[in-house]
Amino acid sequence: MSNELLTPAEMGEADRKAIEAGPFDGIKLMRNAGACVAREVLRRYAAAERVHVLCGPGNNGGDGYVVARLLAESGVPVSLWSSGEPRPGSDAALAAGECPLRPMPLAGFLPTTGSIIVDALYGAGLSRAIEGDTVRAIELAITFGLPVVAIDLPSGISGANGRVMGAAFRAELTITFARMKPGHLLMPGREYCGEMVLSDIGISDAVIDELQVCTFRNCPQLWLGEFPVPGVDTHKYRRGHVGVFSGGPASTGAGRLSALAAARSGAGAVTVLSPGNALAVNAMHLTSIMLRKADDGTEVEAFIGDRRPSAFVLGPGFGVGDKVREFALAVLAVRAGVEGLVLDADGITSFREEPSALFTAAAAPDAPALVLTPHDGEFARLFPDLAADEGLSKLERARQAAARSHGVVVAKGADTVIAAPDGRAAINANGTPWLATAGSGDVLAGLIAGLLAQGMPAFGAACAAVWIHAEAGARFGPGLIAEDLPLALAPVLRELTYSTES
Ligand SMILES: NC(=O)C1=CN([C@@H]2O[C@H](COP(=O)(O)OP(=O)(O)OC[C@H]3O[C@@H](n4cnc5c(N)ncnc54)[C@H](O)[C@@H]3O)[C@@H](O)[C@H]2O)[C@@H](O)CC1
Ligand SMILES: Nc1ncnc2c1ncn2[C@@H]1O[C@H](COP(=O)(O)OP(=O)(O)O)[C@@H](O)[C@H]1O
Ligand SMILES: [K+]
């Protein structure tokens, strides 16, 4: 796999292990890294009148000295600026020694229009907020409107959590090595990185495997092996049956959006479970999706006994209150046949006073899998202490929430994080702001339930649904409303299904 995400500490460990294992020692890895960057600069910025290479005191600066040398050897006018001498004997000092250009102090940095900047000040080793000459250089890049190519990370962005430490370059292009870091995908880091290029510098997959990383970039590679594809001899009852709880007569649309998405995902049957007083309005809007009255726990249990549903969605448009808790706990108490419960929106908010009741039910042996899909506001209602802890990244928050709740947590937003109770986590990055429209989360909840109903394990189902939902939204683009999404899922599902056959 190449979709593992390495923290800066893990990346340092990978560098060390790779150097130990050979064939490349530190300076050779650095030359490889610099060569990748120089190649991209030559290919993309052939018209640049001058390249300003800004080098820091660590190995990120070392990469910069390699780039400066290679560009100069290719005949590109290069100006070299340094914020501090490399430590004597370090790989960066060797790289600086091999570079024929003498660096000027960063304090005197003055770019010219028509030039570009290669940012080799700080990468994985950023340890505190940047200040002084680096901040000035960032301001000058903005004033002159110069394209910035960042090596590994834009200086000022934390590789661990994507935060801006003091200030940061806004790169047009960021070239990183071996594996991406969480800070490349978590906001606002992702925005500061611009286009991302992942380069192979000779660190083998075996070295990465040794680290036993459990954080991933969310992409089909992560879950395609579990993706449900119907066999030729299947029938609708084998393709899973999703129950979606509807809200009252004035708020039935959200549940129907979930139901439609569950059906599009390939579930063989979908039933909307409606309060008696909303049956008529639901009936007016449903065709292939079934409808059944469910006003209390007994009716829910009767539905489970009669129709053997394999997954549920509870929350969209449902209203906050006791009934959510009753229904959620009834579903989580089933011991066979129900694969999972997706708790969204009001379903999450209803447990704000007593989250432990939910978490205990989810922890019981053989309980259906719980998938929670909070946006930031809902997350803070269920996990107020984690939300308030500014020391935690979104990744760490979601991971701790999953461990505490015994459920898969889908912490939504531009950088949706999916975390499992066993510690695995994935960060999603193929979304689009066009998804920020009412009802789009209801579609996501239905899609997760549809995949769960077809037997996909909960973490994979949640990751797959988030990616497919984002992909469908991004392809649709401007004009998207939630009603468009269930149908927009179809081409994405089609491509994924065909790709499992090749
Ligand atoms: N041999 C290797 O280990 C390789 C390292 N690589 C490069 O090495 C980088 C990591 O190198 P390092 O661990 O040396 O880290 P960096 O070069 O990112 O930064 C560390 C240096 O910057 C200083 N520093 C950190 N934050 C600062 C701040 N806010 N203000 C002022 N100074 C600050 C530190 O004291 C240290 O001197 C990667 O990002 C990558 O570019 C690549 O060349 C691949 C091979
Ligand atoms: N800026 C964004 N970029 C990508 N995806 C986004 C963005 N804003 C929202 N989304 C996605 O849109 C969906 C919105 O869900 P939610 O907030 O629950 O809305 P609703 O309750 O109206 O359905 C989530 O899947 C979320 O990740
Ligand atoms: K950098």
TrEMBL record:
EC number: 4.2.1.136, 5.1.99.6
CDD domains to which the protein is assigned, alphabetical: YXKO-related
Source organism of this protein record: Aquamicrobium ahrensii
Reaction catalysed by this enzyme: (6R)-NADHX = (6S)-NADHX; (6S)-NADPHX + ADP = AMP + phosphate + NADPH + H(+); (6S)-NADHX + ADP = AMP + phosphate + NADH + H(+); (6R)-NADPHX = (6S)-NADPHX
Protein name as catalogued: Bifunctional NAD(P)H-hydrate repair enzyme
Family in the record: In the C-terminal section; belongs to the NnrD/CARKD family. Belongs to the NnrD/CARKD family.
Cofactor(s) needed by this chain: Mg(2+); K(+)
Domain YjeF N-terminal stretches: 11-209
PANTHER family, A to Z: ATP-DEPENDENT (S)-NAD(P)H-HYDRATE DEHYDRATASE (PTHR12592:SF0), ATP-DEPENDENT (S)-NAD(P)H-HYDRATE DEHYDRATASE FAMILY MEMBER (PTHR12592)
Summary of subunit composition and partner proteins: Homotetramer.
Function as written in the Swiss-Prot or TrEMBL entry: Catalyzes the dehydration of the S-form of NAD(P)HX at the expense of ADP, which is converted to AMP. Together with NAD(P)HX epimerase, which catalyzes the epimerization of the S- and R-forms, the enzyme allows the repair of both epimers of NAD(P)HX, a damaged form of NAD(P)H that is a result of enzymatic or heat-dependent hydration.
Binding site for (6S)-NADPHX: 59-63, 123-129, 152, 254, 317, 375, 442
Residues that hold K(+) according to the record: N60, D119, S155
Family matches, as InterPro entries: Carbohydrate_kinase_pred_CS, CARKD, Nnr, Ribokinase-like, YjeF_N_dom, YjeF_N_dom_sf
The entry's keywords: ATP-binding, Isomerase, Lyase, Metal-binding, Multifunctional enzyme, NAD, NADP, Nucleotide-binding, Potassium
Domain of life: Bacteria
HAMAP family linked: NADHX_dehydratase (MF_01965), NADHX_epimerase (MF_01966)
Occurrences of domain YjeF C-terminal (ranges): 219-496
